[in-house]
Amino acid sequence: MKPAPFVHHSPRTLDETVATLGEVGHDGKVLAGGQSLIPVLNMRLAQPAHLVDINRVDGLDAVTVADDFVRVGATVRHAALERNDDAYAVLPLLRQALRNVAHPAIRNRGTTVGSIAHADASGEMPSIAVLTNAVMEVVGPRGRREVAATDFFEGPLQTVLEADELLEAVRFGRFTPGTRTAFLESARRHGDYALAGVAVAVDVSGDGGDAVVERARAAYVSVTDVPVVIDLSEAVAGQSISSTWDAVEDLVQSGIAPEADIHASSDYRRMLAAELTRRALATAVKEA
Amino acid sequence: MTTRQFGAPVKRKEDPRLVTGNGRYVDDLGHDAWEAAFVRSPHAHARIVDIDVDGAVDVDGVIAVFTHEDLDGPAGDRLPLLIPHPSIEAGRTGYALAKDEVNHVGEAIVMVVARDRYIAEDAAQRIVVTYEFLTPVVGIATSRDGSDLVHDDAPGNVAAHLLQEVGNVEPAMAAAPHTLTLDLEIERSACMPMEGKGVHAHWDSDEQRMRIHSSTQTSTGVRAAVAAKLELPLAQVECIAPDVGGGFGVKIMHPWPEEVLVPWAARRLDHDVKWTEDRREHFTSSAHERGQLQKVTVGFDDDGRLLALDVKFWHDNGAYLPYGVIVPIITATQLLGPYKPQNYRVEFWSMYTNTVLVTPYRGAGRPQGCYAMERTMDAIAAELGIDRAEVRSRNFIQPEEMPYDQGLLFQDGRPLKYDSGDFPASLAKLKALVGWDDFAAYKKEAEAQGRKVGLGIGCYVEGTGVGPYEGGHVHVETSGRVNVATGLTTQGQGHQTILAQIVADELGVSIDDVHVTTGDTRRMPYAVGTFASRGAVMSGNAVALAARAVRAKALRIAADALEVSEDDLQIEDGTISVKGAPNASIALSTVAVMSNPLRYAFDESAKAATQFAGAFDPDKPPVADDDEPGLEGKDFYSPTQATFANGMHAAIVETDPVTAEIRILRYCVIHDCGTVVNPMIVEGQVHGGVAQGIGGALYERMVYDESGQLLNASFMDFLMPYASEVPHIETDHLETPSPLNPLGIKGAGEAGTIPVTAVIASAIEDAEGFPIRSMPISPTELWDLRRQHAHAGASPTSQTSTTEESA
Ligand SMILES: Cc1cc2nc3c(=O)[nH]c(=O)nc-3n(C[C@H](O)[C@H](O)[C@H](O)COP(=O)(O)OP(=O)(O)OC[C@H]3O[C@@H](n4cnc5c(N)ncnc54)[C@H](O)[C@@H]3O)c2cc1C
Questions:
Q1: Picking from A185-189, A243-247, B343-347, B391-395, which range would have the lowest pLDDT averaged per residue?
Q2: I need a labelling partner for B781 at 20 to 30 A (CA). Which of A117, B93, B288, B425 fits?
Q3: What is the pTM of this model?
Q4: What is the 3-state secondary structure (H, E, C) of B488-524?
Q5: Shortest-distance Cα residue to atom 14 of ligand 1
Q6: Which of A119, A147, A173 corresponds to the end of one domain?
């Protein structure tokens, strides 16, 4: 398990990075935290001739909290974002989800933007990107462009990114004040990729026990090809926050298409997705 | 006074070195060595039509490329069948490099030696092997069907078939008031040591000597095997097991192909060569264990007492049979646990499949046997409506019946005769620890809250410390340093500590002065290896006997010097003194000087042993006819039979009523391994064993598809439990010393693993109310079972067991 030979590029500036990516084109790969790419190289499942290592590029490691969004640069580690109190204060869902991404050692190296660029349907952060209406900041030899999260993912491990493009940052959209969120998943072992996972955002009106749901949306992990948002409002709007949430079942089931693998059947994942949705809704409305 | 070390929770001597990164593993050796990589079969069953290595030899940095054709002499012959047994009908082993045919994915075909491993892998990737596909035989059911064969000359895919019977099962079964039949299944798992295998070979062409470092559980075994394969005199081969990062059984198998090929290539190329196994190789070219299908028929009376037990099982031995039938023999014999079956018949078929071979993994066949027996005990309890612990206790062998002969032959070819044990006392302790009698109330309360909880139990007896022998060598230097050597190898268990404890007590020296070497054939060429929970029993007793010989000699010399009787002497803190007269004393180091008459004084202390230094009897030679120079002792411990440890575990699990996720709330262990040398180390062994057992019960499996591809050959998909999956383990001990060895020790290494699968199955069954007949079990499977039982409606036990009242 040793990688095939490759040329390692270590640009220091964004311009240099873009130029290098332009040169190596389809023979190259961006190397961020390496937590997904390095195993693939070691098993020789991919043999790129060039690695463009962005870890030493200036200015990519910033987390910026603005009125409408939390902007996360390409080399911000999962762990740094998870621990960022300013980001948590305005968008608790980031930390709620990041806690479930692998284990601390992997979060210390792996990047949130990298995991979105990697677009694994069982990654947590792509689903957070779509639920928050994130905007992808893409840069490449042909200039800059911005892509909405819902347009970004094309299939498992496939995005609209061209081989010579860098995902420079992701702007996670902030919810309106009062939106309550929760993230829940079930994995075979603590920190594994989830069998199924769900992020929910719920708007509630009224106070205490009398509060009712206005709107609820959910995004899923491991049960769809690309991260999608399912609007549950139709099933739950007007319901008390102490509802059993049983009404979401049909909406969830029609919005997901889980595949079976060696860890769980498709039916099991369907059951799990619906049950986790109910539990996440219950958790979210409690966390006020 | 020297505090007694034996029995104390002495901190491990090896840990400061190991936890500060100063361990020395095979891959830490040989920075200048050339490295090997292998082309391994991507197919489970195929004929090799052609091997084209042209693309590889041109790669810069490649030294050599070898195929089977290059292997000369015995190196090209089949690898040995290590443990012949009369039940083996078709014993097939592979070659170091495949010849003509491959029988599992991962089998080595071409060896590439290059300047480093990267280059070796680059070159290996360019080698083109052309195959003609044969039908792969995967899974026991397909193998048993026998329409396709793994080996053309192994009809029905049967490697071995064995039937043993004690008593007369047929009439007893016919006469039994109740009978039950259970069809059981248990999946494969594997040892997965943190360090894979590894070999480094140094050939000294001037001296014609081969030095091998191998990450092995038996350096004497590897040494002998390599000498034979390379046609070298044994005296010119040495093998050392340096620090080894875990073994758990897979490294007792030998010689692995690489253990032959790396030394062979080192000699051929006259250069150091090494190979470090990577994880993917470990998954597909080392060994697995556990996979069995079992059919148990049991006859019992109205009180749940066994009248007859009839067990048939099919054991998946993988593609080859180099380790013989040790695993199924252990299943067949150790299945009986602490119980008296009255009449017992067991028959097994060891089956070939086109999968990685099967050799012992911690527990070695016992987890399967314990699972069969304990599932049966629970089924009897359910059938009669009797408490599960009660049914077990009614079938226990009683302490006054010890020694108890089960009437079978054990894995060492000797009688399955339990030497000691107090099963009722163990059960009482377990029930107290887990709160057995209070559980019903707890369960009721939990159910009222919509929770599902279950209590499970499992009992086992483990034959440990099997022969043939192990040796100890103890040498006191003139500095007072005590060197201890045993040939048995160590993989992190704490041998350096417990052997030092034993020697420190026997000799009366500080444990800090005792230095233990294991697994080095230069220091102790006669040894067997580390397996079957035998380290403490075998080497512990051997070094004790060797230390006693040293003590006797020291006392003799001291008695002479102090002009007192030996009986009046004691040794404490490295000083020999007259009891009651502490001023009349002599240091053990001085005795070491005196024990070796010298011509030359190499240092101050040595002067005392030189020829003009003192008075001597001119009529006697400096070394008496029946004596040897030096304060040394060597002895061997060779038992007549295994010593039988035992234990009982209980667990409380909770299953999620909706998602069927399984959580272990409590895990309790009662453990009896005779006299305990170091309770902290035993506890650690039990914890590690339980952790591996939980892996086997709830997480690990080898997922082969029908073409023989292992779908989960990485730690991403082979789910070894993390610390987060292993619950706190509560333990309590019982010490019934073994009457068989001087120290009263029984083995403890494998104990923790054995009953876990049975215990977890029992607990889940209790929580769910339907039988669990296949393990391991995952949430998705439990959820499927719930749906099946919900559909089936009534009679939850009817699924796989049948009950009939005899007329
Ligand atoms: C044992 C283990 C468990 C894991 N469990 C989980 C889990 O539960 N959930 C989860 O979400 N992830 C998990 N991961 C993956 C981890 O989160 C990765 O860190 C993440 O998926 C990729 O981020 P990275 O920075 O390591 O990217 P890399 O590995 O460096 O790159 C991954 C891919 O994305 C591309 N890429 C990376 N950054 C960019 C960029 N800025 N622009 C364009 N392309 C880019 C690379 O070229 C490559 O193709 C696990 C990893 C391991 C090793």
A1: A243-247
A2: B288
A3: 0.95
A4: CCCCCCCHHHHHHHHHHHHHCCCHHHEEEEECECCCC
A5: A102
A6: A173
